[in-house]
Amino acid sequence: MLLAGCSEDTGGDAEAEGPDCGHQQSADLPHSGAPAVGDPIKDTSEFEDDICSVLPEDHWDRLPADISGGESEVDHDIGPTCRWETETGNEQFTTALLTTDGEGLSSSYANAQDDGAELFMELDPISGHPAIAVDLNDDREDGYCNVAVELRDVLSFYVGLSTFVPESSFYNDPCGAAHEIAAMAVETMKGAR
């Protein structure tokens, strides 16, 4: 599942995925209680062109499951995405730069205030960047979790994790696993500055 939030259509008007979503202008960011980023990652263009590079192969051994690789989709509706699978096929996750939303975590905070997210939980910041677990449905007990990290007020990074069997090393704490993956990606992006 993808994050609950807002996106812009080709006309530039916000298209709501939740009640009253997208009503703020970028000059008003952050809004709805979303925290500001103190040390934003200003240039993510390298990763927008090659989103799978946020998790270089030398990071894969830090995860408790063996990664078989990622498949990039630069023109996805939410922004550049990479779909990752494990060797066993018991887990998969998607990483994305949410470039079409333009509101960072603010749209998720607004959607949660409007009861548009069953799961909304602030997590420990990642290297000073605010992080949340968020989804329309709370499916953590089934091994699913989405984590978003604000890179700058207008951009967030997303990890959507799915586990398919209770034996998965990610199953009992999918939000913790998604947070760990997001931390590795943020480390990579901050290192590229």
Write the layout of secondary structure elements.
Layout: E1 6-8, E2 14-16, H1 45-49, E3 67-73, E4 81-86, E5 91-97, H2 106-113, E6 119-126, E7 129-135, E8 144-152, E9 155-163, H3 174-191
Structural class determined from secondary elements: alpha+beta
**Low-confidence segments:** 1-25
Q: Which descriptor suits the 3D outline? A: globular
From the 3D structure, determine the CATH topology: Protein Transport Mog1p, Chain A
Number of structural units classed as domains: 1
Main-sheet strand order equals 3-4-5-9-8-7-6
Using the coordinates above, name the CATH class: Alpha Beta
What is the CA-based Rg, rounded? 16 Å
The biggest sheet amounts to: 7 strands, antiparallel
Give the averaged pLDDT, no decimals: 87
InterPro entries: DUF3558 (IPR024520)
Organism: Haloechinothrix alba
Region (Disordered): 1-42
Protein name: DUF3558 domain-containing protein
